[in-house]
Design goal:
Strands 1, 2, 3, 4, 5, 6 and 7 form a seven-stranded antiparallel beta sheet that branches. A hairpin with a 3-residue loop joins β2 and β3. The chain has helices at about 20-25, 50-60, 80-95, 120-130, and strands spanning about 5-10, 30-40, 40-50, 65-75, 95-105, 110-115, 135. The protein is an alpha+beta fold. It folds into two domains: about 5-70, VC0802-like (2-Layer Sandwich); about 70-135, ACT domain (Alpha-Beta Plaits), CATH 3.30.70.260. The longest helix has 12 residues, at about 80-95.
Length: about 140
């Protein structure tokens, strides 16, 4: 299953990150995980929340430029070589990872990575066939 990630485009200036975070906080929306990538002039805040539709509306109303992207949350065995094994499966399939970031939890001996694939549906199928767990609902790991 794919998850909905919200991307917020920000000018790379002091204080620009505060506005979308305040908007979400004031609406009672908790950020479960995030990533911030930057260039000299702008940044992209990527976030996962439980209620992405509400968050999208709140951010748009606050004046933010937002986009929804589908990503995949993968269970990674929390041991040496756990992630390498997943990479080998993906490499054999020819599926590319556009970007990724970690979800800060460790449940049941697994860590969670959020991945954006060039072919998400194919990636999910290949990972499942290889016995690699896909997280269907990220909120269950947030507690």
């Amino acid at each position: 299953m794919k998850l909905h990630q919200i991307s917020v485009f920000l000018e790379n200036q002091p204080g620009r990150l505060t506005k979308p975070c305040d908007a979400l906080a004031n609406a009672g929306i908790n950020i479960l995980t995030l990533s911030l990538a930057d260039t000299q002039n702008f940044g992209i805040l990527r976030i996962i929340v439980e209620d992405w539709e509400k968050a999208f509306k709140v951010l748009e109303k606050s004046g933010a430029v937002v986009k929804i992207t589908e990503v995949v949350a993968v269970k990674v065995p929390d041991r040496s070589g756990g992630f390498a094994g997943i990479l080998h499966v993906l490499e054999r399939s020819g599926i590319n990872i556009d970007y990724m970031y970690a979800f800060t939890t460790n449940r049941g001996g697994n860590s969670i990575l959020i991945l954006r694939f060039d072919k998400a549906d194919e990636a999910i199928e290949i990972l499942r066939q290889s016995g690699i767990g896909i997280v269907d609902k990220i909120s269950m790991f947030a507690r």
